[in-house]
């Protein structure tokens, strides 16, 4: 705080001296004090830091069901690298993952399994519903497919497509990162950790 | 304490049940195996399927023939043009119509590209399960090139629905043919790269040789097909035995194995990658000019230019789009050689524009009991290798 | 052997045991009664000229819409690896008691298709080692591939059926 006072004093004396140009004074102050003030102290909320850490290290659980799983594997591969967005490791065990990407059609026999895996994930957890079948039942409107995985688990981001290209799924992950950042530090984020 | 011939200590049998659940990184889809284990040895493996049941066969009884084609894409989702071709060949047999030569060659190119893409996914996931992650990244690099070719010709990366009743949906462009030529030039060096990593690798040989052995008689009796059957020494490839869609015009070999273990299946499929590339090269060289779909306007849509001048073309277009093809009454079955084995549709038609029964003969479905018989007596780590070597796809198992 | 030769040979060998036979679009087809299928299958597998050692497919069909007797049909597709020919066997089943003996003692590959017939159509396969639901969940009632089982199309929520959407939204789990 002392540094800021010094900068303000310099500004006042400089401006009161009409001999000197205001712009030159400002530039000089910027040059002298910018590193000291702006680079060494960052003020923020704890919640935002936690949100920033969470969004940059989303570990997906492998929940590939059908054709969308192949595009999810393509997203994890070298062309559309998901590792550069933090989704480096696809954890096989749900207990070590915080993001569940439901990729593929959920049949009536699979819905209880889906709920069990979701319950096994520790909080905070997020769900991306990938593809048309997971979002709304897709082209299969019949007795065998659950019409939308959001009847079983709460979904945060829906990614449409049949199957959505890896770039669409990456956009979904980026949107989820924005959602995490918007919620960070607020009551909603606190509600995720029950 | 005595030691058995497998190097294990003699002790009392203590049975444990292990569930390799529907959510598992190595089961290649939602497949559940309940293993009764004696220590590390598997006594029996009981499969549970049905976790991806989509009711496609029943839904197809309510849709017109052209609407069933995108649903067939989603059955064996690793080689969608193969399913399209099987369905279209069966309906064309019922319609008793033939397809122009150029359409046959284009269908062969798409099917062989899909076979290569499917075998690349198989190699990637099979090697990843056994531990070789580099192969996973390398194989996907080439698969992305094939998916780019798909996208260029049909607009969709995976579920192309390019093969339709009466031919293909649109003609190929010279630019696309040049892209396929470039890929065909580029690919053999990459297959050599995969083989350099795996074929003589001592870890790979230890994990795959003499494991999951199925003899020739067993393979025939348990209704295995495709590379699994050929690795057990049976020379049965439907492209040679029942040539369809112009395959009699191509010269290619059918690789077979000797022992019927996981290593032989690997060698057979890698050899098939080379043969598929050879077929595409020949198809590009000999691609005939001509129409790309049949002339009969009761089956395929008329040319858009004629819609402005001809009344019949307009009426046919309207009827085809609103009502669809009316298939004469009958039933038939046409098997083709998919990447996993014999794929076929048994279609019963009652004379209307909606099929009465559509049944997919899925090679993975018929292979599952044989696969679980193979698992008896091997270690738990071999179970993963066996599931990978049979190359099951749950989309066609559960339909 | 061509399809006509196969059909001729079976007609001369089996005679009254098969109901009828035909060559349909180039495929040889024989129609057999449910009680004779096992003997015919054994003959087809063991005969040295026919040698049908590969079972390709077992399917079921429901002909309710065409209103013919018998209502159901089981279709077997057999290949011969050595001789490179195929045959289709069609067995009619009644509506009240659709029973058929198993052929899984001849071809092990028949185990799963017959179990699927039990699951999706409700046929009773006599002699099968493990007749239980395969594709549908264990406690599912009904046989989905029968024609009188509904396809169950659900209304898609658009702006014209807002009330349906409100009910649906209320029943979904709360997003946190």
How would you sum up this structure in a few lines?
With 194 residues, chain A is α/β, with parallel strands linked by helices.
Commentary on this structure:
The complex is a heterotrimer of chains A (194), B (399) and C (176). In chain A, 42% of the residues are buried. Chain A folds into 2 domains: 3-40; 48-192, Rossmann fold, CATH 3.40.50.12280. The model of chain A has no long low-confidence stretch (mean pLDDT 84). Chain A is α/β, with parallel strands linked by helices. Chain A has a 4-stranded parallel β-sheet with strand order 1-2-3-4. In chain A, strand 1, helix 4 and strand 2 form a beta-alpha-beta unit. Helix content of chain A is 47%, strand content 8%. The longest helix of chain A has 18 residues, at 22-39. Chain B is α+β, with helices and mostly antiparallel strands. Chain B has 2 domains: 2-47, no CATH class; 49-96 and 99-293 and 328-398, Cytochrome-c3 Hydrogenase, chain B (Orthogonal Bundle). Chain B contains 15 helices and 8 strands. Chain B has helices at 56-60, 65-73, 80-95, 101-130, 133-154, 174-198, 202-208, 216-221, 227-231, 238-241, 262-285, 311-322, 363-374, 380-390, 394-398, and strands at 15-20, 32-38, 41-48, 163-164, 167-168, 330-338, 341-349, 357-361. In chain B, the strands form 3 sheets. A 3-stranded antiparallel β-sheet of chain B has the order 1-2-3. In chain B, helix 6 runs antiparallel to helix 11 (262-285). Chain B starts with 14 loop residues before the first strand and ends with a helix. With 176 residues, chain C is α/β, with parallel strands linked by helices. Chain C folds into 2 domains: 3-138, Beta Polymerase, domain 2; 146-176, no CATH class. Chain C has a 5-stranded mixed β-sheet. In chain C, strands 6-7 form a two-stranded parallel ribbon. In chain C, strand 6, helix 3 and strand 7 form a beta-alpha-beta unit. The longest helix of chain C is centred in the N-terminal third of the chain and has 12 residues, at 3-14. Chain C starts with a helix and ends in a 5-residue tail after the last helix. In chain C, 36% of the residues are buried. Chains in contact: A-B, A-C, B-C. Chain B binds chain C through residues 49-50, 53, 55, 57-59, 61-62, 93-94, 96, 220-224, 234, 236, 241-242, 330-333, 335, 342, 344, 346, 348, 350, 356-357, 359, 361, 365-366, 368-370, 398-399, and chain C through 24-25, 27, 53-57, 59, 61-63, 65-66, 75, 77, 81, 84, 88, 107-113, 133-137, 144-145, 147, 149, 151.
């Amino acid at each position: 705080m002392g540094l800021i006072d010094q900068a303000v004093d310099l500004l006042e004396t400089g401006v009161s001296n009409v001999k000197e140009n205001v712009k030159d004074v400002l530039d000089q102050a910027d040059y002298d004090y910018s590193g000291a003030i702006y680079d060494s102290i960052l003020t923020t909320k704890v919640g935002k830091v936690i949100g920033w850490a969470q969004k940059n290290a989303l570990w997906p659980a492998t929940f590939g069901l059908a054709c969308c799983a192949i595009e999810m594997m393509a997203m994890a591969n070298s062309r559309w690298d998901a590792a550069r967005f933090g989704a480096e490791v696809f954890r096989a065990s749900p207990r070590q993952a915080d993001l569940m990407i439901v990729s593929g059609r959920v049949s009536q026999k699979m819905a209880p399994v889906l709920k069990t895996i979701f319950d096994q994930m520790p909080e905070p957890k997020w769900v991306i519903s990938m593809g048309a079948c997971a979002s709304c039942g897709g082209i299969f409107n019949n007795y065998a497919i659950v019409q939308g995985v959001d009847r079983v688990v709460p979904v945060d981001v829906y990614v449409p497509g049949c199957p959505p290209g890896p770039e669409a799924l990456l956009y979904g992950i980026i949107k989820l990162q924005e959602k995490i950042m918007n919620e960070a530090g607020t009551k909603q984020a606190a509600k995720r950790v029950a | 304490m005595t030691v058995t011939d497998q190097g294990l200590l003699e002790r009392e049998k203590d049975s444990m049940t292990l569930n390799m659940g529907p959510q598992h990184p190595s089961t290649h889809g939602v497949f559940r195996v309940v293993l009764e284990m004696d220590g590390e040895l598997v006594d029996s493996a009981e499969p549970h399927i049905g976790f991806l049941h989509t009711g496609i066969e029943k839904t197809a009884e309510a849709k017109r023939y052209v609407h069933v084609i995108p649903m067939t894409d989603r059955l064996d989702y690793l080689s969608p043009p193969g399913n399209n071709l099987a369905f279209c060949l069966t309906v064309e047999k019922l319609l008793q119509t033939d397809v122009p030569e150029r359409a046959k060659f284009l269908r062969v190119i798409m099917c062989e590209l899909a076979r290569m893409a499917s075998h690349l996914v198989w190699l990637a996931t099979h090697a990843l399960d056994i531990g070789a992650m580099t192969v996973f990244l390398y194989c996907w690099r080439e698969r992305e090139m094939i998916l780019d070719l798909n996208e260029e010709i049909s607009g969709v990366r995976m579920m192309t629905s390019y093969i339709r009743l009466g031919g293909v949906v649109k003609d190929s462009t010279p630019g696309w043919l040049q892209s396929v030529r470039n890929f065909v030039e580029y690919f053999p060096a990459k297959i050599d790269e995969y083989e350099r990593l795996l074929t003589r690798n001592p870890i790979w040989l230890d994990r795959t040789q003499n494991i999951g052995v199925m003899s020739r008689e067993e393979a025939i009796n348990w209704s295995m097909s495709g590379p699994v059957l050929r690795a057990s020494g049976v020379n049965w490839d439907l492209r040679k035995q029942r040539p369809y869609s112009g395959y009699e015009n191509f010269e290619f070999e059918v690789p077979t194995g000797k022992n019927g273990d996981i290593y032989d299946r690997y060698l057979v499929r890698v050899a098939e990658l080379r043969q598929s590339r050879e077929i595409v090269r020949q198809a590009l060289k000999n691609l005939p000019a001509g129409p790309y779909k049949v002339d009969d306007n009761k089956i395929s849509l008329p040319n858009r230019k004629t819609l402005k001048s001809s009344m019949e073309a307009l009426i046919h277009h309207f009827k085809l789009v609103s009502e669809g093809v009316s298939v004469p009454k009958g039933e038939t079955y046409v098997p083709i050689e998919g990447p996993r084995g014999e794929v076929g549709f048994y279609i019963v038609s009652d004379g209307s524009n909606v099929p009465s029964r559509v049944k997919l003969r899925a090679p993975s479905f018929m292979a599952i009991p044989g696969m679980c018989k193979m698992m008896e007596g091997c270690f738990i780590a071999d179970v993963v290798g066996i599931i990978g070597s049979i190359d099951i796809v749950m989309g066609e198992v559960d339909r | 052997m061509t399809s006509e030769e196969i059909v001729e040979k079976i007609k001369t060998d089996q005679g009254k045991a098969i109901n009828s036979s035909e060559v349909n679009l180039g495929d040889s087809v024989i129609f057999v009664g449910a009680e004779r299928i096992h003997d015919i299958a054994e003959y087809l597998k063991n005969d040295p000229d026919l040698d049908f050692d590969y079972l390709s497919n077992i399917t079921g069909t429901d002909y309710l819409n065409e209103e013919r007797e018998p209502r159901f049909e089981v279709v077997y597709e057999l290949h011969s690896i050595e001789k490179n020919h195929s045959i289709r066997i069609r067995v009619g089943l009644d509506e009240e008691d659709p029973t058929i003996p198993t052929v899984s003692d001849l071809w092990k590959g028949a185990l799963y298709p017959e179990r699927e017939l039990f699951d999706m159509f409700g046929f009773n396969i006599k002699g099968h080692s493990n007749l239980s639901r395969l594709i549908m969940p264990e406690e599912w009632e009904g046989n989905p591939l029968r024609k009188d089982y509904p396809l169950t199309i659900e209304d898609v929520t658009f702006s014209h059926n807002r009330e349906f959407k409100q009910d649906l939204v209320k029943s979904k789990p709360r997003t946190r």
